[in-house]
């Protein structure tokens, strides 16, 4: 039997301090798993567009490199756009997971089809693209949104919950969803309320809260010695890099080994 | 932080005693996870055909019911045909996982495409069908076989390993696989040898050993309160059942709650 | 010109006697085709779940073996879940057809897209899975249900017909279906009423009654010497089988030749 | 029990007389099914290109209209390009079948995947397109060709057979085919020789001879009252038509009813 | 820098004179691109069925041959059924484009998913088939129709525009379209009105007018020396052709070089 | 007739000066189209990994904003990874095209299937992902590589050409490609040599040189008033951005209008 504790770090790819509370992450720990948290230094206040996702990547990659240096076992990127997941997997020697990719696969394991309940309608193409890249297009029943911006989700939780239940019910009844995945990590902690609200309407489907799920799956993969494929994600070639001093190490393959 | 230990039971859907050794399963335990094992009373000696899979199902369902009665948290079916997975999920109140479905999703999380390395060529359609049902057809690079029957895999481990490396290398180089999944749970424990053999040829891909992986993922799902969708797998309606006395409870929905 | 008569047997995979009337099957005969009927000895009263489908398989396989011994030319399994189709094809030397697979392919031959009209909503994933395995996912417009249990379909035929027309109309107008397939063999004989009801609303689509269709297609295949592929469905390997005495022959490949 | 005989006409969409022998078609008759034959008056000598297929269509449509006037029950178009199938289905009140579409669906019913063995490599895109339109792309393992033009197939049957066996074997062993379909109706009658040749090499797969198969399936559909969907193939609107006097009736919906 | 002017001819595959006005095409010219126009001599008055499309093909092929003889650089077929596109590409040494195939690819370049807004509901299968052949099924959000026959589109342009805006809005809001393509070349010139009407409702999506778009793309391809693949569209083999005197040259490969 | 000249700018997302020569771009101009060029200030020396693509994006976005300020009509990103295409389309009011997406759609317009011939094997998943996002997975025959790094392509052009012909031939003969697309914009200008080399081996397929093609298509789209969908690519919400001063305007929607 293995003795060691698995250390998973959640990296929030935004510059807004306090949006993700360490206490909320600590509450997710269980025997054999410990969590830590980091935010990025340069980048957007929140992520609701491809532009914001793009400018969150360099800062995120720097945090992934730092996590590996500090002996962390696995990193979970704290955004449903999985920003930087692919480059991070190239430059890191430890496992890096995205909550969207992970949540979609878990949903497909548990139910016949799943829907994403996200914050803004404009994110729909992005989720359909991620499903396509995961090979899961046929499992994605729909993408629905509550039309509340990320940074306003906690302003009135009763409104957020009511909208989640409403769209969740329509996903099941109109779109054929048999499992639900939150389409924004800002909704972390709302899964219980959504599930209760749906049960009250006679709807019994799993609600996947992507950050707790990705953390738990990351730890499970570490336990069986699995990480991203080095053939899919080989270290980048050694090469000139102008700017991005904190990523210099990634451009030198020796450092990434 | 949660304190409880998660109890996962591996159910081998065959009547051959000693094929799966409890000690090998106990070696998979880690902090917070405990394993147990069961075999079935009626059914085939091993599973290499749709016929054998079919006649393993009633016995497997009986063991799933028993596991739930005994307080087990999750069941993993010990065969890459995932025999009985769907009916078991209907009659059980606990999580039931199949190693094939789980292994395929994990492979798709880790690499761009994956191949199955199984025992006999005749199982190829079955794996392609499972991939289709998982929505993962586009991620399945190929199904390759070592052409050694299940019950002869351990006769000469050096031959088995050599054949695994040979087919694994061809899966990567000829078929485009970037991760490998064993296509028979009888290969449990060979992942390390296959991975080393491939590394010796300059090939660096994850090798997914389905039983350890499915056990670890099952425990991870239990930790975050997830199980199969009740909308996809509702309890069967109450109804006449002739024969199958040990499954009578499953035909009575009250018992299945 | 061939002289012989083709003998097709319909095997109802349920223990409820009298549900399928021989006279109704005899009415399907035409020059050169004769029909017979069998039910199973152990199994469920009707099939509305994966569990019931699973426990209908061993009894169905026994009837398929018996049909072959009695000189029948082809067997049609009398349930839209096609329970036991794949193992039956392995153990039988004669053609075995499932009405769901057959009905879906016929529908795809006749119209651009088709819908399934079945009894209960819970069967939807099962039909979508069969379509995926047939390679026909893009041809399946929708699965709709009349929400009447199998054994109550004949209680009030006017209600059943009204509900069929209602869901058939919505399948065409809302889902884009251009052909319809009954999703329960318990609806056998209702195709005329559904087609008339739809014509009265100006909708002209083929209505595929799966049992008559599968019987007719089975006879057609026998006429041109075709049966299931022995490469897809090879005889099972000779092996130990505990229980299932009536299936012992199937475990001995000599018997299955 | 139905008494009538079903009359199926095979329409060869070429101007080469004697290519299709009536005696060969008469040999396909069985109790309850009678066959007749027609060729077209204007069009190509044989069909090996999209151009030749296109100029075979008006003549084929004229023959379909004539068959219906003469009381034929169903028409089978005698070319694996299924030329004119869709317009013929619009203008005819009787069932019209294409051997390619029909053969592909039958192959998919019988085996996991199928390959087409055709005459010339240049036809490959056409078969892949037909598979896509049938929704069967995932079932098409490959398209292989013997590289013998249609009108030379019978010059040396031993060469043709040897090439068929060679490509058939490669389709099974290299491409994963588990059933084979002739990709040219000029190969009618060669299925037995191909099947024997493959069995001699230990390969046991169904060989679908498209014309006998489509005739038999056409008769089976007539027996159960099925024909193409009027929603997919509605009669053309009444409208001006310059030229094509023999098709004038088709431009007048009254005639097509 | 290239100096020559690119000459694109629009071939309307109908016999109705004056339906396409040369002045409307001349208005599409821009520096370096000149347009001309032709109609066919035998064929239908307009195209709203597979039958009409089929009988438009021989006349269209004759015009394609004539365009090449006259030194035209590229031909655009003026019908969203792309009638004769494939045979024309075989017999022509110049580029031939279909507005449907081209419009769909352009729509997929510009937005996540697109819808077709066409004239009659009955054309829906045809558009879904074209999308499948283009490999773009997953990009086609829906096919909607204004239910106005081709030759009546200009009778009351305010009605046509109102219906276009109505169906365009529903395509975006209900079906998830993010770009629109006219499904009838008879709608040429209406794109501005549709786009303005949608903007007035707060909907901002590209509206692709297929003839101007295909003309512009055709000229762009000529500029970079690209044309259809000779491997996909090889010249037809030399062979007997009865009738179709104006196409005799196409049956002689020398002429098609 | 339109009079204005269309101005297309090619933005090379690398810091290596002189890799792309303005003279080579000027040679692509034709009547009505003018070209200009820009490189980025911070980022990688060349792009052969997801990491390098990621760190090229902020610099690329800055150049897209500058191009729009300078009155350019359309931007083509000079890398087959299409880095920054999606965020650039959000922040720009002018058309932005990626050569990979554009080249794939053009290839699918011209031939039945196409292959990518790229520099390094490791880029294969990236091209398969782009094809999936374009909806063109079924059109992608294969991805082949010459195994020469980007910055060494011009070291010995005869070696590069020989390798291109070799892999191009295998793509056609072994993988079924009927058109070819260069998988690295560093190969610009080699299309003629590849096409000649293949013709010398009897292979006649279009070779798509992505930068000239994307430039020409971009100009064609500008001519018909088309640009990316504002529904797929809406301007980013106004929000805090730490760092990336040159992108501040993009975070303010007013600036992006």
TrEMBL record, chains A, B, C, D, E, F:
Q: Which domain of life is it from?
A: Bacteria
User: By its UniProt entry, which Pfam families does this protein fall under?
Assistant: Asp_Glu_race
**InterPro entries (alphabetical):** Asp/Glu/hydantoin_racemase, Hydantoin_racemase-like, Iso_Racemase_Enz_sf
Q: Which family does it belong to?
A: Belongs to the HyuE racemase family.
Q: Which PANTHER family match?
A: PROTEIN DCG1
**What is the name listed in the Swiss-Prot or TrEMBL entry for this protein?**
Aspartate/glutamate racemase family protein
- In the record, what lineage is assigned to the organism producing the protein? Bacteria, Pseudomonadati, Pseudomonadota, Alphaproteobacteria, Hyphomicrobiales
């Amino acid at each position: 039997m293995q003795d060691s504790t698995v250390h998973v770090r959640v990296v929030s790819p935004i510059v807004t301090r306090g949006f993700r509370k360490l206490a909320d992450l600590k509450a997710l720990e269980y025997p054999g798993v410990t969590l830590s948290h980091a935010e990025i230094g340069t980048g957007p206040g929140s992520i609701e567009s491809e532009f914001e996702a793009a400018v969150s990547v360099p800062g995120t990659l720097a945090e992934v490199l730092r996590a590996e240096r500090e002996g962390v076992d696995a990193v979970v990127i704290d955004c449903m756009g999985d920003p930087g997941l692919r480059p991070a997997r190239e430059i890191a020697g430890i496992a890096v997971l995205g909550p969207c990719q992970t949540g979609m696969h878990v949903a497909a394991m548990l139910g016949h089809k799943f829907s994403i309940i996200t914050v803004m309608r404009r994110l729909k193409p992005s989720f359909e693209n991620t499903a396509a890249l995961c090979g899961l297009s046929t499992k994605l029943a729909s993408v629905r949104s509550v039309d509340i911006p990320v940074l306003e989700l906690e302003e009135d939780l009763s409104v957020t919950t009511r909208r989640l239940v409403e769209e969740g019910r329509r996903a099941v009844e109109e779109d054929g969803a048999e499992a639900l995945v939150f389409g924004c990590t800002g909704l972390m902690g709302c899964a219980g309320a959504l599930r209760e609200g749906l049960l009250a309407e006679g709807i019994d489907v799993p609600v996947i809260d992507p950050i707790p799920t990705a953390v738990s799956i990351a730890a499970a993969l570490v336990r069986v010695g699995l990480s991203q494929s080095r053939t899919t994600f080989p270290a980048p070639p050694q090469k000139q890099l102008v700017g991005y001093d904190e990523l210099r190490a990634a451009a030198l393959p020796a450092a990434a080994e």
